Amino acid sequence: MANATVKVTLVKSLNGRLANHKACVKGLGLRRIGHTVEVQDTPENRGMINKAYYLLRVEG
């Protein structure tokens, strides 16, 4: 699991969301709806994904 990654896609708008949920999405590197990034599968990234799970689609 040295270089394990997960693909994360923003599927819902950030308008009206809690500030710390917006910060988590930004921290993952997502900018707009439909934008997909590949991030390392670390506890820190998993925590951000779990906090804003209802805005994201996760693969892998």
TrEMBL record:
Family annotation (InterPro entries): Ribo_uL30_ferredoxin-like_sf, Ribosomal_uL30_bac-type, Ribosomal_uL30_ferredoxin-like
Location of the Large ribosomal subunit protein uL30-like ferredoxin-like fold domain: 6-55
Keyword Ribosomal protein among record annotations: yes
GO biological processes: translation
Any single Gene Ontology cellular-component annotation: cytosolic large ribosomal subunit
Record key words, sorted: Ribonucleoprotein, Ribosomal protein
Record's keyword annotation contains Ribonucleoprotein: yes
MF terms (GO), sorted A to Z: structural constituent of ribosome
Entry-linked CDD domains: Ribosomal_L30
HAMAP family found in the cross-reference section: Ribosomal_uL30_B (MF_01371_B)
NCBIfam families in UniProt: rpmD_bact
Family of this protein: Belongs to the universal ribosomal protein uL30 family.
Subunit structure: Part of the 50S ribosomal subunit.
Name of the protein in question: Large ribosomal subunit protein uL30
